[in-house]
Amino acid sequence: MEKSVENQPYLWIQGIDVSKESIDACLIRQADGQLFESKFHNNLSGFRHLKAWCKQMQCECDQHTLCCMEHTGLYTRLLVHYLLSREVQVWLESSLQIKRSQGLVRGKSDKIDAQRIARYAYVYQNKAEIMQISVLMLEKLKDLQANRRRLMKALQSLRTSAEELKQFDASNAKVIDKVNREAIRGLEKSLDKVDEQILSYISEDESLKQKYDLMISIKGVGKVLAAMLLVYTHGFNRLADSRKLACYSGVAPFV
């Protein structure tokens, strides 16, 4: 869940380029625009060193700091959790959006990318979309849904192989079906547990639960679709326009 923030009194702007093993940080002091740069490991120890380095630069790394980084999936997750625990204002921006805003640029490295992200955040800070704690709940739902897709794929694979074999070798298809029966039951139980956990997570967040209940009250919208819509729209804070959602999901009638 995100919200637009205007005229937020940030004392520091921080751009971070995140990779699997390391993070490159670039600090901009709001008062005079001076840059400070350093590199750290992408783990808890590295985050503590980041915090200590910020303190040396007289940055408290708190709610008066705007930290911008690109979406890089799992690589940013631990860092985002750490920053949110310190009340840092975290802004995850599309890499395409950052590149488009800067036009044609030359040179590329982790250090240069951190500078570009920091400068982007410095210029467009009034348009920052700040992450909220409830985004972490959506991350958990996204992980469960990815696991659900893997379970469904495995189930479909086991069921289809036996069905196709029946057309050409019915006797052996019965053997395959018998062998796979226990595995299929296990996958079905796992699928039920995943669905229960998804509903449990949704119930923990009052806002998500309210939106979920509204969706399943619509004819044709079930539990699976409702949960997917919550994740892909970030609780309807993204893709809130029906035309954009239809286009994104591939149901818009384009030729």
The N- to C-terminal Cα distance equals 34 Å
Name the average pLDDT: 87
CATH architecture of the largest domain: 2-Layer Sandwich
- Provide the gyration radius in Å: 23 Å
Element string (H = helix, E = strand):
EEEEHEHEHHEHHHHH
Number of helix segments?
9
Query: What's the β-strand tally?
Result: 7
Sheet bearing the most strands, described?
5 strands, mixed
Global morphology: elongated
Query: Could you estimate the helical fraction of the residues in percent?
Result: 55-70%
Classify the beta-strand content into a percent band: 15-25%
Q: Which CATH class of the largest domain applies here?
A: Alpha Beta
SSE-based structural type: alpha/beta
The CATH superfamily of the largest domain turns out to be Ribonuclease H-like superfamily/Ribonuclease H
Strand line-up in the sheet with most strands: 4-3-2-5-6
- Spans of at least 5 consecutive residues whose pLDDT stays below 50 are 1-6
Q: What is the CATH third-level topology name of the largest domain?
A: Nucleotidyltransferase, domain 5
Number of domains: 2
